[in-house]
Design a protein that fits this description.
Elements: E1 4-9, E2 12-17, H1 27-42, E3 48-52, E4 57-59, H2 70-73, H3 78-86, E5 92-96, E6 99-101, H4 103-110, E7 113-116, E8 121-123, H5 137-145, H6 147-156, E9 160-161, E10 173-174, H7 179-190, H8 209-223, H9 229-242, H10 245-260, H11 263-278, E11 296-299, H12 303-314, E12 319-322, H13 326-345, H14 351-359, E13 361-364, E14 375-378, H15 384-397, E15 403-406, H16 413-418, E16 426-431, E17 440-445, H17 451-463, E18 467-472, H18 477-496, H19 500-510, H20 516-523, H21 525-538, H22 547-553, E19 566-567, E20 576-577, H23 579-592, H24 601-621, H25 628-638, H26 648-655, H27 657-668, H28 682-690
Parallel strand pairs: 2-3, 3-5, 4-6, 5-7, 6-8, 7-10, 11-12, 11-14, 12-13, 14-15, 15-16, 17-18
Antiparallel strand pairs: 1-2, 8-9, 16-17, 19-20
Helix pairs in contact: 1-3, 3-4, 4-5, 5-6, 5-9, 6-9, 8-9, 9-10, 11-25, 12-13, 13-14, 18-24, 19-24, 26-27
The structure holds nicotinamide-adenine-dinucleotide.
Residues 299-305, 322-325, 328, 379-382, 386, 389-390, 407-409, 430-431, 433 line the site of nicotinamide-adenine-dinucleotide.
Length: 695
């Protein structure tokens, strides 16, 4: 199938881009645009050219399916197409509807004229991938809409609607009604006009440019720490104002190449593709028919149940919330109301929207009310006997074909499924706390979970705006299984010489949203304690620092008790270092005969992050995660891993797996700690041997 359709209408040639879904500027399309232009040039009947797309998109920019393949840079490159367009001897009119973004907008800006309908989405979103426009966008946009407006669009990557830019030179005419008819009429009117209009010939004017760009650099530099792209965008726009067009283009090219090679952009691009990949399950066909989810039920109105419920109400999906205890039910309802009232106070919701959401909620204590729900999510106490009672009841109650989900974080989903006569309908939906805020949803695939159940839950996750990642069944699933090793390592660091705040500060400086000790205080140290007690029973040989148990024995459960690894003042969340804890750590180390030493930041960071990586490798090898990038998605969306580092697995690749293992060997030689801890997972060792990467 052809990627562009060429036809002659009256005295105009029309080139219609036709590369679904968004007219990505793939190799075939680029080639066919150039061919169309040549045909128009050679046809003496043709006096003008209209370049257009579909209702949905003029063009969304580069064809992401070609990313990283030779086709993406094969000639004619976008820059070549743009050169051909701009030097055409007959006027080229871009007729724009829908998405006109990135390379698509750069293409449009190289046309001699642009007409658009209202509602077209105009953007240069490259900065979101740690890049900047690389086909003249930073040079032409300032000439067409002014340097200040262009800088805002390029640095933010945000979308502007065409009507908002209607008065700028970006558009020569706004079209009411049929775009193509309007564009053809316009082309007829300008076909004889010479010289042809070119954005490059406009001289950008900006009084006090130097002061303006200095101010922009200061504010953007401060706001975009760790992200190099926004500042380079400023440099490129400044070049558009200060330099002749061709020189500005050269500056843009240079900066673009620098960004393309930056680790931050690699990380952001990895995250972008990881998110898309995570939505696909290797053995579940994309056209798997979905079960209809119109109504949802939630069982348990505690911390998680209420947050989970809010997700569905916000998406317009009615929820019946069931609780065992009346007071708990009322409390849950109040929490849900509170979530919406807080949003209303911040101006994010109107009173009417709050009302509409609350109206979708039905509270009950009777299983009879769950009968017509298409899916139920259980969020009761984390005890297998309680789960058993609930799932037996759900099995009796729910209609045939309903999806039975559990929010369990540590229990065996296969066991839970076996409490029912329909294990194929049982799946894990592991939300993260606070469930109405955190993006991550681990979708836990039981041995018998049906493919259409998985596909349905993945689609539902999108409706409630979650990033879903599939995990197999194991203790802790992907995220918590890895974090356990990270926390174990954090405790060893205390024994060996660090303080909680040194550890937290080191990884926070490195980019984690929250260090392990602040995180534990937030989640509740009692939760980790319960997990450790189970470990001591089930894996008595496993070396675990007992220092955290000491803390818990003193009732220091974290923020909720005002004391944990830190002190908390009433009503505040600031973690205040506590000398009592430091002393406890030192005393404990002395007791166990550990030689304390100064541990530098790099060692702290490497030990924590490589602990994640090694467990991640095991998870990958066992097939608990189907791709390394899925693990990265879990960490980026559920654990505050810095996006500009792309996730633990990409980070390990960037460091080089050989170097990761070399560091692990060094840590293993440490006389303290657990020598078994640093044994490279077989997959990691194999990849090093083969000189390969995770991602
Ligand atoms: N808290 C977290 O951070 C977190 C995160 C992910 C998953 N989880 C999991 O979510 C589940 C719920 O955790 P939570 O923190 O919301 O607990 P919670 O104690 O806040 O809430 C549990 C609620 O379930 C109700 N309940 C107990 N037995 C019931 C029954 N038989 N029928 C109906 N209601 C019943 C209780 O009255 C209580 O209100 C657990 O499986 C937990 O492991 C918790």
């Amino acid at each position: 199938m052809s990627s562009a359709i060429y036809e002659v209408r009256g005295r105009s040639a029309v080139i219609t881009m036709n590369n679904p879904p968004v007219n990505g500027l793939g190799f075939d399309l680029r080639r066919e645009i150039v061919e169309g232009l040549a045909r128009a040039a050679g046809d003496s009947n043709v006096t003008a050219v209209v370049l257009t797309g579909t209702q949905r998109a003029f063009s969304g920019g580069a064809d992401i399916r070609e990313f990283g393949t030779p086709k993406s840079t094969a000639e004619p490159s976008l820059n070549t197409v743009i050169r051909v367009l701009e030097s055409a001897e007959k006027p080229v009119v871009a007729a724009i509807a829908g998405a006109c973004m990135g390379g698509g907008l750069e293409l449009a800006m190289a046309c001699h004229y642009r007409v658009a309908v209202s509602g077209a989405q105009i953007a240069l979103p490259e900065v979101k991938l740690g890049l900047m426009p690389g086909a003249g966008g930073t040079q032409r946009l300032p000439r067409l809409i002014g340097a200040e407006a262009a800088l805002n669009m390029i640095v933010s990557g945000e979308t502007a609607l065409s009507e908002k830019l209607a008065s700028s030179a970006l558009f020569d005419e706004m079209i009411d009604g049929d775009l193509l008819q309007g564009a053809l009429a316009f082309a007829g009117r300008v076909s004889e006009k010479r010289p042809l209009k070119r954005a490059r010939d406009i001289k950008p004017v900006l009084p006090n440019a130097e002061g303006f760009f200095q101010f922009a650099r200061n504010t953007i530099g401060a706001a975009a720490r760790n992200f190099p792209a926004p500042l380079k965008c400023v440099d490129a726009v400044a070049a558009a104002v200060a330099l002749p067009f061709e020189e500005g283009l050269r500056v843009e090219r240079e900066l673009f190449v620098q960004l393309m090679q930056s680790p931050e952009s690699r990380a952001l691009r990895h995250a972008f593709f990881a998110e898309r990949a995570a939505a696909k399950i290797p053995d579940v066909p994309e056209d798997t028919p979905l079960r209809k989810i119109g109504k949802v039920a939630v069982v348990g109105a505690g911390t998680m149940g209420s947050g989970i419920t809010a997700n569905f109400l916000s998406a317009g999906i009615p929820v019946t919330l069931l609780e065992a205890k009346k007071e708990a039910l009322e409390k849950g309802q109040a929490v849900i109301r509170g979530i919406y009232e807080a949003s209303a106070k911040k101006g994010r919701l109107s009173a009417q929207q709050v009302g509409e959401r609350i109206a979708l909620l039905k509270a009950t204590q009777s299983y009879d009310d769950l009968k017509d729900a298409d899916m139920v999510i259980e969020a009761v106490f984390e005890e297998i006997s309680v789960k058993e009672a609930v799932f037996r009841k759900l099995d009796e109650t729910m209609k045939t074909g309903a999806i039975l989900a559990s929010n369990t974080s540590t229990l065996d989903l296969n066991k839970i499924a076996a409490f029912t006569r329909r294990p194929q309908d049982v799946v894990g939906t592991h939300f993260f706390s606070p469930a109405n805020v955190m993006k991550l949803l681990e979708v836990v695939r039981g041995e018998k979970t049906a493919k259409d159940v998985l596909a349905t839950v993945m689609a539902l996750a999108k409706r409630i705006k979650k990033t879903a990642v599939v995990s197999g069944v194991c203790d802790g699933f992907i995220g918590n299984r890895m974090v356990e090793q990270y926390l174990r390592q954090a405790l060893f660091l205390l024994e060996e010489g660090a303080t909680p705040q040194q550890v937290d500060r080191a990884v926070e400086k490195w980019g984690m949203a929250m260090g392990p000790f602040r995180m534990s205080d937030l989640a509740g140290n009692d939760i980790g304690w319960a997990i450790r007690k189970r470990r001591y029973r089930e894996q008595p040989g496993l070396k675990y620092s007992r220092i955290a148990d000491r803390l818990c024995e003193q009732g220091r459960f974290g923020q909720k008790t005002g004391l944990g690894w830190y002190r908390y003042e009433a009503g505040r969340r600031d973690a205040i270092p506590d000398p009592v804890v430091d002393k406890m750590v030192v005393d404990y180390a002395r007791e166990i005969g550990a030689q304390r030493r100064r541990i530098d930041q790099e060692e702290i960071v490497q030990r924590l992050i490589f602990a994640l990586v090694n467990e991640g490798a095991a998870i990958l090898e066992e097939g608990i995660a189907s791709r390394a990038s899925d693990i990265d998605m879990v960490y980026l969306t559920g654990y505050g891993f810095p996006r500009y580092r792309g996730g633990p697995m990409l980070y390990a690749d960037e460091v080089g797996l050989y170097n990761v293992v070399a560091s692990m060997r060094r840590f293993a030689a440490n006389p303290h700690g657990d020598p078994g801890f640093w044994k490279p997972a077989p997959l990691l060792a194999r990849l090093v041997g083969e000189g390969k990467r995770f991602t």
